[in-house]
Amino acid sequence: MTPVVEQARAKINLALHVTGRRPDGYHDLDMLVAFADVGDEVGLAPAGADRFDIAGPMAAGLAADADNLVLRAVRGFRALTGQTEPLAVRLVKRLPVASGIGGGSADAAATLRALCRLHDHPADDAALARLALSLGADVPMCLAGRPARVSGVGERIEPAGGRLAFGLLLVNPGVGLSTPAVFGALERRDNPPLPALPAIGSAAGFAAFLAAATRNDLEPPARALAPEIGGVLAALAALPDVRLARMSGSGATCFGLFGDRQAAETAGARLAADHPGWWVAPAEARF
């Protein structure tokens, strides 16, 4: 078997509407999701015995134990397929942990894609999709890895065209947030769903639609739990050429939307100089 490497791109919630709560405690969501061209990396290679290593600038935030989503994905794939060959698994962690951009879910999804390549297993297998959902609500959309409107708990995925490219500036103030805590602090869980999506012609038009007709319902409770988010959003909104400043997922990572990557890089250099303690990452995404 030839070693394989898969990218685990950051998942960005351009919009996140909480539309209800199910009897099992999970929430119904209606979201617009894009994937930035920055993220983690998962590598798999045949080995004499199983081994799992974590490297990268954010490695200290993760434990290489049995609960790590990468290892849970490996165990689930083995149970599904019967493939038990020992593997050396290496996770290069570049995204902040517990930061609202799907880092762990993206890692699990990248692991499943790598395992499919390694063992020539179909990535569109329905059983693989069920395994992905069992690992977490964000894992199926990360497994697909395409811009989409996502609803239910995350299992209903409607791919978007992916023709519009725009710049993103991802910013995290170094604060981790518990997703259950943010959901628990919601004041209302029966909010209106997303409107119908208009024809998207430009980054400016898309940002105007997002600002006028969509929201992130998790932003108010997240800001109450981590007031630093307000400072990040204010700093993003004050940058030249920014089209929209919003929090992603359950936070604390926020994003600024720009016309292109170059504008995001220019703004990022300025923001990083002003706030050296923040994680600042320019990127490009599509919808």
What do these coordinates show?
The chain contains nine helices and ten strands. It has helices spanning 69-81, 103-119, 126-135, 139-144, 179-184, 203-213, 219-225, 228-237, 261-274, and strands at 4-21, 27-46, 51-55, 87-92, 148-152, 156-159, 165-172, 244-247, 254-258, 279-286.
Defining key terms:
6-stranded mixed beta sheet; Alpha-Beta Plaits; alpha+beta; 10 strands
Topology:
Elements: E1 4-21, E2 27-46, E3 51-55, H1 69-81, E4 87-92, H2 103-119, H3 126-135, H4 139-144, E5 148-152, E6 156-159, E7 165-172, H5 179-184, H6 203-213, H7 219-225, H8 228-237, E8 244-247, E9 254-258, H9 261-274, E10 279-286
Helix pairs in contact: 1-2, 1-3
DSSP helix count?
9
Q: Rg from C-alpha positions?
A: 19 Å
Question: What's the main sheet like?
Answer: 6 strands, mixed
Question: What order do the SSEs take from the amino end to the carboxyl end, as H and E?
Answer: EEEHEHHHEEEHHHHEEHE
Give me the secondary-structure category.
alpha+beta
Q: Considering DSSP H and I runs of 4 or more, what fraction of the residues is helical? A: 25-40%
CATH class of the largest domain: Alpha Beta
- The tally of domains stands at 2
Spans of 5+ residues with little confidence (pLDDT < 50)?
none
Distance between the termini: 35 Å
Total DSSP E strands: 10
- Shape summary: globular
Relative strand content: 25-35%
